[in-house]
Queue: 2 jobs
Job 1
Amino acid sequence: MMLVLLAFAIWVAAWALNAWLANGRLAGSQAVRIAVPLIFGGTILLVWELLVRGLEIDLVILPPPSLVAQTFAANLSTLWADFVQTILKGALSGYVIGCLIAFTIAIVVDRSDFLRRGLLPVGNFMAALPIVGTAPILVMWFGFDWQSKAAVVVVMVFFPMLVNIVAGLADTTAMQRDLMRTYSASYWQSLFSLRLPAAMPFIFNGLKVSATLALIGAIVAEFFGSPTVGLGFRINASLGQLALDMVWAVIVVAALAGSAFYGVLTLIERRVTYWHPSQRN
């Protein structure tokens, strides 16, 4: 009971500290913007640990963070092999291929009103397909290795990227387009000098959304067939063994990879779209 009361006290104290930092004179500083989420996340982990220990919850049902950390450290080589198989081979390759295909088709669609009217509804149909239905089919087509997971990722990221790129290329004013015509600019000159830079916020929005979809798609696809390696395979096998500490360790790997990927895209976006109002201080 003492641990439960301690967990409650720590939660209240951390909440008060974060409220003071967020509303204080230094609220806009870089240090406070970093400290607030770190304090919040650390508090959740500490309260989680204390509640599991204090309420004597079965460690099989809900392992504490300390046990997850021990499992993570003891299986670094296994988790690294799973990371390479799922993230670097399946998710990243499918992500790059899907985004490149979407960009190429978006340029073609942008030049043809007929294709815009015909392909976008088809893309919408593809986006509505459930992954639990398409993943087994693609696994049967492309085999049980990472190629089938990359194919699933391509299907998942294609439509969000296509829609965002097409919308971004159309995000120019009539005055801007008339100015390019005044300069006798060709389609490609107008594309690279005006329309593509104006579409960058939309493109990066699609890239960030697709990054999350790529990770989810690669992991879920491994539930339907995979060699004895991969994050999805590890989750499936560990659940069958009731090793939830290993499941949580795999979740940590996926969360860290997704956060790092999203962070890299955000940093690149700030450098590329520094002129956009959303990036100004």
Job 2
Amino acid sequence: MTDSYDLITLGAGSGGVAASRRAALHGARVAIVEAGRVGGTCVLRGCVPKKLLMYAAQFGDALGQARGYGWSLGEPRFEMARWAAAKAAETARLEGVYRQMLAASGVTLVEGWGRLDGPGRVRVGERVLQAPHVLLATGSAPVRDSVPGIEHCATSNELLDLDRIPPTVAVIGAGYIAVEFASMLARLGSKVALYFRGAQPLRGFDEMLRTAAAAELQAAGVELHPGLVPQRVRRLEGRFLLELGDERVRGFDWVLNATGRRPNTEGLGLEAAGVRVGADGAVAIDAALHTTARGVYAIGDVTNRRNLTPVAIAEGRALADSLFGGTPREVDLSRVPSAVFMLPPIASVGPAEAQARAEGRTLKVFETDFRPMKQAFIGGAERTRIKLLVDAVSDRVLAVHMIGADAPEIVQSLAVALSAGATKADFDRTLAMHPTAAEEFVLLREPVR
């Protein structure tokens, strides 16, 4: 039996769902194929439950700070099992919402594993779907072969299903996932050690943020081991042994493998269909999201470009508008806001200072480092750091970087200004809102270099 559609989407994560719904809104007949739960990594195993755990860790900080503001409290106790049950209920609710959105949009959900089966054909079990356009939106999955023995360790998927906080934890890696969960677990009661190859965590971020992140992790009690990655991980009598070289071995109750993610391209029949895949498994695309096979497109993490949910959603909607809406357009990835939900959180939009200089930019750099009012009142040590990068020739603000309370909310708003081409003069003539941390962005007057 062959079912005909205008678009077949493989993967019902945020990007695939957004593309499918937008295409259906334009009048296209759409089928979306999903072998697992509807909603994808961000909703079910990533952004959403991760931030819910961040809130849990943040409450621990708030309870401690409350005493400095006159509150008398008993000894707080975090119960991971209660959090995990509430998280499971919330992600189940969200999956239901996603299913309802697809149904309300007229998108046909086909449950099962889909693979390309010739031009314009997708096979799902014994069922064959046919369409002139096929979209790959299968996302990515944790790398499980980066270190010998690491396949026995948990990834972020399993962390979010824990029903207790392990007493001792090793985190291997230094990207978003590693830094976020190291920060959270330390606040929730684990003794955490972070192992990573570089000199600082968060490769690719501005050096100010990387230095500040390392300091804040250490302040939370996280041991940092830069330039050191285990040579092997062994499981022995319920514990994990990290072989660190020179006969050094260290034991932990639990290990988080946060060594990266890999595009989900295996078993999709891409090679036979003429879809070129790189050595890292990423699908090669052009600016219009076309793969090397006629009528096959790809968005989101499966392309391994900017692996952020809003990027996948924007790409999916742009593709649907181009194919079915009569408004061909591309997604501008030059100013993609991003956040790291450690405590305190980090947010950025625009290039790091080193990147901007490598591109030949002449910069004016504005920075400030202060202890916010909330911390100062109780004698807290947590600081806020912000940076503006300004093109010295055009006066245009190129980048905003911040670590501190509410950084993601503040930088998201400032991203609008950068997208609109705001200059430093625009920032200077904007009145401050006092007392706030965000006002510091419009009070920076003299460049530090």
